[in-house]
């Protein structure tokens, strides 16, 4: 049996007591009260960044956990990590994939991801799960629904709970993209939960936005909305197989006609509509080929560079708004007033706009949105 003293990264759970053993099913093992526990190792942002830069998957996972942390004590380390890794990022093809519920997003990504990995690409999938209203954790576990992709060595899947974020986007998704790119992944896919027109948030952090639709269930009507069509760079009607193949082709024609009502700027990409079957794999290669055409056209026209600038601006705006919310929460002496106003608004005694003005005034913010000097 290996002695605890020969394992420098482990220490006895109760170092002050004699290390004893007991027999379990004929094998000698440490007694339950003397089980070993791993010594906590403090990892600096510099060391973590260096490991991520070499493509270390474990370091990448730890880095994502760090930047997703809501603990104030982790914020400085997370900021340092991002500052160190940002120069290594930016080289990946960023693709957002969304769709109506039941469109088969995870199955589609599984099929597309296997295709890309077979072609030698390194793929990171940021799969945003719906959050449990009780624990705020993931409730679907998309990694288990991408079985083929999860077994490939050049694929990395990170399921994260949406945490109630608007648009079904996990907190710090933009930062996670930076870490994945710094780790050497040349393709990053962000899958959303598909919650309606709020996908505009996802659209603001990717280069190409794919909307998956299905036919034969009435869901195709959801796609004929100007807001959704304006977001899409490519549409694909999934589940075009078996008896549903003809309906999928009919839906493709309907979406194509709907797109003609939109007038993109001169020289801009005209969104394309395809059909595919994630189950059989038919049409998956054509969808990827269309994405490559989109990226080539964007690089030629300058649209790709413009979108990256817009992504950076959107990221900055989001962080400023988050900082303002946190600054408001830190204002001292607001807790009693906040509890009072919330109770009055919930009971109907106070209109919400008036309650908001009272809280903002107390926090030192004018109703016009200008921050007043601290008293």
Secondary structure layout:
Elements: E1 10-12, E2 21-24, E3 27-30, E4 36-38, H1 45-53, H2 57-68, H3 72-85, E5 93-99, H4 105-118, E6 123-129, H5 147-150, E7 155-161, H6 173-182, E8 187-191, H7 200-203, E9 208-214, H8 220-223, H9 226-231, E10 234-238, H10 245-259, E11 272-275, H11 284-301, H12 303-330, H13 335-347, H14 352-363
Parallel strand pairs: 5-8, 5-9, 6-7, 6-8, 9-10, 10-11
Antiparallel strand pairs: 1-4, 2-3
Helix pairs in contact: 1-2, 1-3, 2-6, 13-14
Would you give an account of this structure?
The chain is an alpha/beta fold and 375 residues long. Among the domains are: 41-88, Single alpha-helices involved in coiled-coils or other helix-helix interfaces; 89-301, Rossmann fold (3-Layer(aba) Sandwich). It has helices spanning 45-53, 57-68, 72-85, 105-118, 147-150, 173-182, 200-203, 220-223, 226-231, 245-259, 284-301, 303-330, 335-347, 352-363; strands at 10-12, 21-24, 27-30, 36-38, 93-99, 123-129, 155-161, 187-191, 208-214, 234-238, 272-275. The strands form 3 sheets. The chain has a 7-stranded parallel β-sheet with strand order 7-6-8-5-9-10-11, with helices on both faces. The chain has a two-stranded antiparallel sheet with strand order 1-4. Strands 2-3 form a two-stranded antiparallel sheet. The longest helix is centred in the last third of the chain and has 28 residues, at 303-330. The radius of gyration is 25 Å and the shape is globular. The termini are far apart.
């Amino acid at each position: 049996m290996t002695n605890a003293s020969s394992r420098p990264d482990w220490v006895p759970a109760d170092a002050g007591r004699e290390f004893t053993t007991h027999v379990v099913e004929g094998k000698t093992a440490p007694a339950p009260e003397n089980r070993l526990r791993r010594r906590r190792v403090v990892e600096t942002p510099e060391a973590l960044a260096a490991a991520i830069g070499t493509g270390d998957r474990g370091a990448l996972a730890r880095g994502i956990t760090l930047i997703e942390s809501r603990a104030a004590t982790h914020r400085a380390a997370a900021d340092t990590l991002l500052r160190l890794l940002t120069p290594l990022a930016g080289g990946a093809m960023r693709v957002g994939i969304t769709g109506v519920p039941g469109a088969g997003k995870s199955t589609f990504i599984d099929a597309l991801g296997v295709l890309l990995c077979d072609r030698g690409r390194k793929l990171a999938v940021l799969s945003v799960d719906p959050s449990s209203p009780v624990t705020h954790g993931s409730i679907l576990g998309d990694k288990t629904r991408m079985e083929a992709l999860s077994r490939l060595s050049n694929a990395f899947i990170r399921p994260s709970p949406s945490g109630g974020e608007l648009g079904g986007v996990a907190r710090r998704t933009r930062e996670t993209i930076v870490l994945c790119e710094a780790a050497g992944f040349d393709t990053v896919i962000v899958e959303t939960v598909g919650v309606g027109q709020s996908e505009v948030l996802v659209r603001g952090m990717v280069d190409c936005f794919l909307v998956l639709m299905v036919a034969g269930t009435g869901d195709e009507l959801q796609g004929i909305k100007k807001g959704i069509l304006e977001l899409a760079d490519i549409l694909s009607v999934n589940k075009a197989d078996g008896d549903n193949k003809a309906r999928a082709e009919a839906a493709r024609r309907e979406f194509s006609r709907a797109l003609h009502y939109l007038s993109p700027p001169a020289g801009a990409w005209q969104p394309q509509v395809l059909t595919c079957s994630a189950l059989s794999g038919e049409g998956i290669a054509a969808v990827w080929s269309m994405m490559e055409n989109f990226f080539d056209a964007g690089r030629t026209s300058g649209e790709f560079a413009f979108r990256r600038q817009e992504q950076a601006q959107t990221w900055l705006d989001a962080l400023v708004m988050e900082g303002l919310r946190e600054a408001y929460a830190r204002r001292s002496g607001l807790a009693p007033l906040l509890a009072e106003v919330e109770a009055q608004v919930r009971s109907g005694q106070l209109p919400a706009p008036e309650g908001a003005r009272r809280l903002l005034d107390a926090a030192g913010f004018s109703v016009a949105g200008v921050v007043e000097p601290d008293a």
